[in-house]
Amino acid sequence: MPHVYTLLGSGTIANDAVAAQLTGRGVIIDTGEFGRRLIDHATRAGLEFDVIPLSSGRRLDLKRIGQHAPDWMWTVHCETSTGKLVDLDHLRQYARTYRTKIAIDAISAVGTKVTDYSFAHLVTFVSGKALRNAPGLAFVAMRERAVPNPLIPRYLDLAGYDPIAFTQSVPLIQAMDVALSELTEAEIATHQSKLDVFVRELLRRGVPVELGDDQAPGIFSLTLPENLSSIELGHQLAFHGYQVQYESTYLRHANCLQVSTMGWTTERDLHQVAAYIGTWLQKKTATRESDGIRHGNLGGPNDESFDRGVLN
Q1: Which residues of 240-264 are buried (b: 16+ CB within 10 A; e: fewer)?
Q2: Are 136 and 172 in contact (CB under 8 A)?
């Protein structure tokens, strides 16, 4: 993408800037929690649009989208709430056939795999996540240079950026320079290898895992049975020094815990987390009939009866 504009803030401000660039009537793909956040961005910007869910798995219903003849289409690449990828190959086909402006929220995808976004018109990403810089910088990449628009807020008018405008954080920009210099293809490939290690260990410990071709390399979602608590498991992992995602409202409602390969994680980290999850699930579901041992209360992180040897 030849034009990349740098904003001070989170991915939310980048997507607000994208909404300010869209005109006419469009289509937004409902992929889940973060697809619905794009709907909220568009609604607040006063845009006219139709909502279309993914037809099956990661595939877009191109026929249904074409029936709307949209001026623009907006989707996430990686739906963070599920760890699933949208099939961009289908989107590329659509872009070759129709003159529709394509916008992609790639915040949870950039840096986890090598992807060609050149067919799109607008792509958002951030300094944190898989780029491994501190959060605080948001980016909008564009195929064409932004056109001035005096009817939108100054901060969202990307035409005023060349590519940076207003007050910025020099330390964050300098750190971004270092992070990008370390973002080699070999480093990007480690996301898939770390995920592979994690999944293999889960399977080895008897944890049922279903992986489709839409599994993102950067984040894995594990939905627990109703009789178990993702919050409790998340607390126990935190006690051992492993920060996983489980506290967001949408994850609580789904009783879901997420493990990410992003940041300064290693294959050993992912192996250890999987080992603990497998052991925790085994103890929680064990019965007198299954192994002849009555486990009773496992205790909490501050309970001396808690098994601290799981990860050794």
Answers
A1: eebebbbeeeebeebbbbbbbbbee
A2: yes
Using an 8 Å Cβ cutoff, are 115 and 77 in contact?
yes
Same domain, 244 and 175: no
146 part of a folded domain: yes
139 and 57 inside one domain: yes
- pLDDT, residue 290, reads 39
The sign of the CA dihedral 75, 77, 69, 60 is negative
Residues 254 and 207 both lie in one domain: yes
Q: What is the DSSP string of 102-155?
A: EEEE-TTTBTTB----TT-SEEEEESSGGG-SPS-EEEEEESSPPPP-TTS-GG
pLDDT score at 286: 64
pLDDT along the chain (312 residues), means of 10: 95 98 96 95 98 80 89 96 92 88 97 95 96 95 96 95 90 95 94 97 94 94 95 95 94 96 94 96 66 38 37 36
Q: State the pLDDT at residue 232.
A: 96
176 and 235 fall within a common domain:
no
